[in-house]
Every structure is written in C-alpha cells, then in structure tokens.
Amino acid sequence: MTSKLNVVPFVSVDHMMKLVLSVGVERFLTELSAYVEEDFRRWESFDKVARVAAHSPDGVIELMPTSDGTAYGFKYVNGHPKNTRDGRQTVTAFGVLADVANGYPMLLTEMTLLTALRTAATSAVAAKHLARGDARTMAIIGNGAQAEFQALAMKALLGIDHLRLYDIDRWASEKCARNLDGFGFDVITCSGTEEAVDGTDVITTVTAAKQRAAILTDNLVGAGVHINAVGGDCPGKTELHADILRRAAIFVEYPPQTRIEGEIQQLAPDHLVTELWRVIAGEAEGRSSRQQITLFDSVGFATEDFSALRYVRDKIAGTPFFDELDLLADPDEPRDLFGMLLRAAA
Amino acid sequence: MTSKLNVVPFVSVDHMMKLVLSVGVERFLTELSAYVEEDFRRWESFDKVARVAAHSPDGVIELMPTSDGTAYGFKYVNGHPKNTRDGRQTVTAFGVLADVANGYPMLLTEMTLLTALRTAATSAVAAKHLARGDARTMAIIGNGAQAEFQALAMKALLGIDHLRLYDIDRWASEKCARNLDGFGFDVITCSGTEEAVDGTDVITTVTAAKQRAAILTDNLVGAGVHINAVGGDCPGKTELHADILRRAAIFVEYPPQTRIEGEIQQLAPDHLVTELWRVIAGEAEGRSSRQQITLFDSVGFATEDFSALRYVRDKIAGTPFFDELDLLADPDEPRDLFGMLLRAAA
Q1: Domain, as residue range, for A296
Q2: How far apart are CA A108 and CA A275, in angstroms?
Q3: Domain assignment present for A210
Q4: What mean pLDDT is reported for chain A?
C-alpha cells in the first residue's frame, strides 16, 4: 500500500504513560483541563446521547458516544466489581476519535489511565469555578486509583498544596502519600473521616463503596466547603448523607444522567441543580458566598472523554508515543476489494 | 508487565487478508456461514439493540452492539458517499468482541473486509434455506466490491457455478469476471439486466444506487426465482420495483430495522414478512413451492457481525495472523494506577 489512509494512530498503555511523563503529570492535567473547560463552555454544540449499556449479572459494558459536528468520539468502558478476584481491573476503557466529515477514525487509545486523568481534570475545572479562591487544603476520602490524580489536578488548577488523606485501608493512604512524595504537598495521613475533613476547604470523596454509604455525614461539613463527590457514580452507589445534599448548592454535568447515577439519586427528581457548563459559560451563578457549601456531583460524561481524546490526538503529533495500526482496508479501487485480497496472495 | 491480561489480539487488514487466504476464501465463507446460521438459530438469546447512529451532512457513523449473554460485540461503521472523491472508502469498519463475564475485550479487528465476507455468508445461508435445491445459476446485478464474495459464498453453500454478470459500468463486470477466473465458475458478462437474469435461479442485486431505483422490474422475474436483495440498505435507497415485492414471499433479518432500511420500506408497515431466523430454527416455512418467488431483503444486522467476530476470534488461535495490543492498563495493584505511572518513569 502506498497510501497511508489505511492507518490509524494507536496509543497503547505504555505509550500513554510515556506521553504523560514526557509532558509532566501536572502540565498534562493543566492542558487537559483547558480542553475539558473549552468543551463545557460550548456544551450546546454537542450531540448528547445516553450511554448504551449492556448489563449482565457480573457487570456492565457501555459505549459512550458524542460528537460536536466536527469530530466524533466514543469510549468503551466496562465495570465488573468481581474482576479483582482473578487479577483483572474492575474498570478498563479504550476510545476512538473520528472525523465526522469522512467517518475515518483519527485515534484509537487506551482510556483506563486517560479516564483517571480526565476525571481529575474535570473535578479541578469544577473546583476552580466553585471552591473559594483561597482554598489550599483538601481532604481525600478514599485513597485508591483516583486519589493522586485528583490531588495533582487540584494543585495544578487551584494551588491546593495541603492534603489530608483517609481510607478504611491504611495501606491505601500510605501508598497515596508515598506516590505524592516529591510533588510539593504537605500530606497528613488521618485515621478517620472526621480528622481528615477538619478545617479543609475542599473535600473529595472517591471511595469504592458499592452501596448507599454515608462516607460523609452532615455534621462533618462546615460552612464554605466545596465537596467534590466522585465515587457515587451508578444507581445504588452513593457516598454522601442526603442531609448534606439539602444544604448544598449542587452542580452536575448532565442532569438526566446524574439523577440516575449521582448523589442526587437520593433526592426528589425535581430538586434544583445547576449544570456546570452554565457556570463555566457565565450563564449561571457558581458559588454565591464564602459561607455557601458547593457540591460537584460528578458521574463522568461523554464530553469529558471527547475532550481527552481531542487533547491526546493533538498532543501525540510529532512524538514517538503512538503506533500506526493497519485498521482500514484501502484498495486502490474501492470496487475491487476482492482484487486487493487476491493481490495479497501474490 | 509480567501478566498478559493487558493484551488484546488485533487483526489488521493485512492479517485478515492472510487469514482468509490461508484458510481459503470458500472454506472461510463456509465456516463463517455455519457461525452465522448457528446464531440465527438461537436468535432469541441475543440482546438486540437498535444501532446508535450519528448523522451529519456528509454521512453517518454507527455503533452496532449486541450480546448473547456470554460474549458482547460491537461494530463501528461509517457511510460517507463522497469519500471516494479524495481516495477514501465510502464504508470502513472495525469491531470488538468482549467477554461479558469480565468486560475485557477479547478481539479487535478490521471489519471492512470481514463485513463483505459476513454479508455474503448471510446471503448464502438465506439462499440455502429459500432457493430451490437445484439452483445452479445466479445473476449478479451490480459488480462492485461485494460481487465476488456473493458468488463464492453461493458456490460454497449451494453449488452455484453459473454466473451472469451485469453492471452499468462494464469495467466492473470485467473486473469481477477476471477476479473469479480459476474459481470454477462458468461466467457470462451481460450487457443488460434482462439478459443477465434470463433463466437464472437466483438473482442477487447489489448495486450502489443511491435512490429509489428499480434495478429489477416485475416483468423480469420469473416463477421460482430466489431474489437476494443486498444493495437496498438505507432509508431512500431501494433496488426492486414494488410490484416484485407484492408477488414475493419476503424474508428479513430484524423487521424493525428492515422496514426502515430495506426494500420493504416501499410497502405498508404491516405487510407480511417472515423473519429468516424462524425459517432456520424450523419455526416458519421457507419456500412453499417450486413456483414461489422468494426474496431475502437483506440490510445487515448486528448478530451477523457478532458471528463474524466469534469466528475470527476462534480462527486466529494458533496462527500468526494477529498482533498483541497493549490496550488495557494492568497495574499489579488496581488501587495503584498512579504508582504504575511512576514506575514507568524508572
């Protein structure tokens, strides 16, 4: 084949790690956040479709497509809680960005790592618009796979440099503290949620609790705090006591999805929430006072994956951090697909 | 990484061609047909979802998912008629097969070539059940990318060995005849549809006509013929005159889709059609007499792609015809995704 039209750039897990490291994690998160913010600002230009889910007794496989009319993206993502029993990940993901004008894929990439990065970037974009401007201290409740990314994104965008970590498994907090060593944080490992949230400006909840949990109870949340609720992200899985929700100004990505999957599944279906994109676009008020409790009820949305795909597509240009996949048949004459096959035999 | 859980087998276009050639095209089509037929027979075990389409002025991008509860498959496919202007294909496709029990992809493969093969295999499975048992002669109206695959599948399953080719562009017929040289056909290149269909047992229409065309008119269709209508496959695109449909016993894949996309979009929405799977499963009658005109109104359905993915997945085992893609992040400890990133720097 003389043409390269058959080729699709592919970013493997190894290449994604090398790309992130070569850019620098904090700069990667900062630049990615700018893409996420830009796409939230032009929210209305997106074709927003509900995710297409295939449920089974052990888990779910979802396709999350979206398009801005110029590019089309989708993410394949699974969720299988029992996977860790045989050494597999609970969640894995990959994604594709395509050109709407000709339908050709422009990028195939791993998205397990990239989803962690875009989730943290989205949390930081929301916090930038909702937390108090002088916020410097964050509690992270749940110190698993997301924790370090959340910390670094908040540092990059808000200047958060004091962390108070708590996890029911102390090993996880120690792992998190160790991994963040050298990134310029003042880290305190705590022995309970109450200790962790004491005096913090931002509270991030990102536990793996599988049921209606109340990781955070109302009495622990002081005035002026911004809550970044990341872990409640599917029906039946919540982290905050409902009383907190009733005191807070609630901001969400896409209400039809958040009302099913987010913390607000605990509230009446008509409880007032504000779409984050409206705050970013200047169409709605964010934080109204220093005393207000703000809550970003994050469940993850297809546009955030789209932003991440766009960013990676732009960022790999000129780098060695991708392979060229021979994914698309490209006969010299479209009507001679069979002839292409015959010539391959020669 | 010591584990191989991160790896997904990938079949490139080049490997697909080599796989098909190493198996032999006719044997590949025969074996693939058996998978297609098996999946039609257990039709009711499939989760059938409408395709998820993103339309734009220049074309469409679709995701076609389905699952049998054990495996999950989806195909990405675009359709952009103007693509040939700049040397691109009108249609390209790729697909993924995943394990429902853990959500992990088991196969990523090109599907442009594979779709041509599965479409021909499906046509042949239908004809095996609907054409007269002594059918030996087939007309192919439209001699583009699908023609040779249709011919070989019909030969493999029915013993069709006489072909009568017609295309409005004589080059296409000559290309098709040349490509089929050495495959044991008696081929006649015709100068019109009437000449092509004269005395044939099976008529395959597979043109690229973009509008309501009448490639085949009623007077040309004699008693006892089986019509394999492949080219009418989207709203506004049909190949057969409606009078033929009114004389024929009509068999379809998935009625809700065929009524929108197939030849029967020309008929009333309650016009009687029979689902092909019922004939294969022995629940409905196929051909009722030697005189009856049977019509398979084929538009392509997700289960056929699923069958093709299953077949390729089984067939590549032990061959060199795939690569191993590092698609899935596989940290030693699921909660230490960030640590995996840090260790990659070392």
Answers
A1: 123-300
A2: 30
A3: yes
A4: 94
Same domain, B158 and B296: yes
* A268 and A153 fall within a common domain: yes
Q: Which of residues 180-199 of B touch A (CB under 8 A)?
A: none
Q: Please tell me which of the candidates B52, B88, B105 has its beta carbon nearest to residue A104.
A: B88
The residue of chain A nearest to residue B47, with distances taken between CA atoms, is A54
Q: Which amino acid is at A265?
A: Q
Residue B333 domain-assigned (yes or no): yes
* For residues A167-190, average pLDDT: 97
Name the minimum distance, in Å, from the CA of B35 to any CA of chain A.
22
DSSP sequence for B6-61:
TEEEEE-HHHHHHHHHHH-HHHHHHHHHHHHHHHHHTGGGSEE---EEEEETTEEE
- Cβ pair A92:B104 closer than 8 A: yes
- The Cβ-side half-sphere exposure at A113, using a 13 Å CA radius, reads 32
pLDDT tens for B44-60 read 999 987 678 899 999 99
Which of A39, A167, A201, A233 is the catalytic position? A233
- Chain A residue nearest residue B339, CA to CA: A179
User: Active-site residue A47, yes or no?
Assistant: no
Q: Is the pLDDT of residue B182 over 50?
A: yes
Q: Is residue B47 part of a domain?
A: yes
Binary contact (B12, A327; C-beta < 8 A) = yes
CA distance A277 to A279: 5
Task: Judge: B83–A67 Cβ closer than 8 Å, yes or no.
Answer: no
* Predicted local distance difference test score (pLDDT) of residue B3: 54
User: Which of B20, B69, B328 shows the shortest C-beta gap to A92?
Assistant: B328
Are residues A165 and A296 located together in one domain of the fold?
yes
Interatomic CA distance for residues A145 and A206, integer angstroms: 9
Residue in chain B nearest A51 by alpha carbon: B52
User: What are the DSSP E strand ranges found in B261-313?
Assistant: 274-275, 294-297
Q: Does B242 touch chain A if contact means CB atoms closer than 8 Å?
A: no
The reported pLDDT for the residue numbered B49 is 73
> Do residues A206 and A151 touch, judged by C-beta distance below 8 A?
no
In this complex, do A147 and B338 lie within 8 Å of one another by their Cβ atoms? Answer: yes
Q: What is the DSSP secondary structure assignment for residue B108, as one 8-state letter?
A: E
**B148 and A325: CB-CB below 8 Å?**
no
* Contact criterion met (CB < 8 Å) for A89 and B330: yes
Six token digits for residue B115: 């779709």
SS3 B201: coil
Is residue B315 domain-resident?
Answer: yes
Identify the domain boundary among B279, B300, B321: B300
Residue from B74, B326, B330 to probe the interface with A (highest A Cβ count within 10 Å):
B326
Q: Are residues B152 and B262 in the same domain?
A: yes
Same-domain pairing of B206 and B144: yes
Q: Are residues B261 and B224 in the same domain?
A: yes
Domains contained in chain A, number: 2
Contacts of A325 in chain B (CB under 8 A): 10, 12
CB atoms B79 and A341 under 8 Å? no
Question: Among candidates A187, A181, A174, A104, which has minimal Cα distance to A138?
Answer: A187
Strands (E), A80-166: 93-99, 105-110, 137-141, 162-166
B35 shares its domain with B102: yes
Q: What residues of chain A lie within 8 A of the CB of B13, using their CB?
A: 6, 326-330
B146 with B112: CB under 8 angstroms? no
- Over residues B200-254, the pLDDT tens digits come to 999 999 987 667 778 898 999 999 999 999 986 677 888 899 999 999 999 999 9
Task: Say yes or no: A253 and A134 in one domain.
Answer: yes
CATH number of the domain where residue B235 is located = 3.40.50.720
